[in-house]
Amino acid sequence: MPARALGSASIAFGLVSIPVKLYSAAESAATVRFNQIDRRDGGRIKQQLISSNSGEVVPKDEIVKGYEFAKGQYVLFSPEELKALDVAATHMIDIDQFLPDGTVDRIYFDKAYYLGPDKGGARAYHLLAEALRSTGRIAVGRYAARGRQHLVLVRPKDKGLLLEQLHYADEVRAFSEVPLEEVAVKESELALAKQLIDQAASDTFDPTSYRDEVREQVMALIQRKIEGEDISVAPTEKPEHKIIDLMEALKASLNATDTRKPAKRTDAKKQAASSAAKSAAKTTPRKSARKKRAS
Asked: What does the pLDDT read at residue 277?
């Protein structure tokens, strides 16, 4: 089933304008949601909008949006005024600069959208994608939509283009805000940690090998309830947080990893040779003892 476009925009750099469509790059497996039900009659409980001043239910046609500029003080906006703010959006992806790929820190990444060519823009679309791919660069610019200007990054993806929405600098907290205790790293501990990393190292990432196991378990329990089965779940024991010796923990982790690996053929040969040597050593003294008795 082909993807459904979320909206339209145009990529602008220099005097070139490329009409594109935006598509969602990911479909999040939403959290399993439960409704509130009246146990007595099975009716679903509905929420009502209550005025904090009068305590009465407020009709939908009397509700407007407001911005709190001071404690308890709001400036109100009508639907028409909010629509005027949205109309001010240009829906133009204005490219400001082209940077080497990999120069934007991953902490700035927020959301990703696929870009597809809109009517009449296929030639320029593929030209930009190939130009970025061959130069190893990405495009950084701004995209105004829905009353807000977003910082965005456009980069080649497969045979097309990907738009990634970025956080602004003032939206990202500095790591210096995180309290850290200075601790010296011991060389012996570092060597064991690097060995543990090497044992689980891989050169590629396969996302298909991971799945949301918790969601699968919840859906399985829901299916059992649908089929009329009572569910009894044993209480989960909380893990004990003990202060352990770091070196012993690293060694235990390495040993646990080793036991899961099959023995190598070279090791088997060595063990066989060692066993044969021991067997030969045991029989040699017996032969010399028989010679002595014979003399």
From this structure: 46
3-state secondary structure of 268: helix
42-56, 169-183, 239-253, range with the lowest pLDDT: 239-253
| Residue 282 forms part of a structural domain | no
Q: Where are the alpha helices (DSSP H) in the chain?
A: 79-87, 122-135, 187-199, 213-226, 246-259, 265-294
Residue 253 lies in a domain: no
**pLDDT band at residue 125 using 50, 70 and 90 as cut-offs:** very high
Distances (CA, A) of 204 to 105, 109, 157, 160, 249: 21, 21, 17, 22, 27
Q: Is residue 120 a part of any domain in this protein?
A: yes
pLDDT reported for residue 1? 66
- Residue 64: which of 52, 47, 54, 77 has the closest Cα? 77
The span from the CA of 190 to the CA of 197, in Å, is 10
What integer best gives the mean pLDDT of the chain? 81
Q: Would you say 154 and 143 are in contact if contact means Cβ atoms under 8 Å apart?
A: no
Nearest to 114 by CA among 57, 158, 54, 67: 158
What are the b/e assignments for 90-102, b being 16+ CB within 10 Å?
eebbebeebeeee
pTM: 0.65
In a domain, 154, yes or no: yes
Q: Of the spans 75-89, 169-183, 203-217, which averages the highest pLDDT? A: 169-183
What is the spatial distance between Cα 37 and Cα 39, in angstroms, rounded to a whole number?
A: 6
Segments forming the whole domain that contains residue 104: 7-26+88-170
pLDDT score for 249: 78
CATH number at residue 98: 2.40.290.10
Count of structural domains within the chain: 1
CB 3 within 8 A of CB 114: yes
Cα angle 209-215-217, degrees, rounded to a multiple of 5: 95
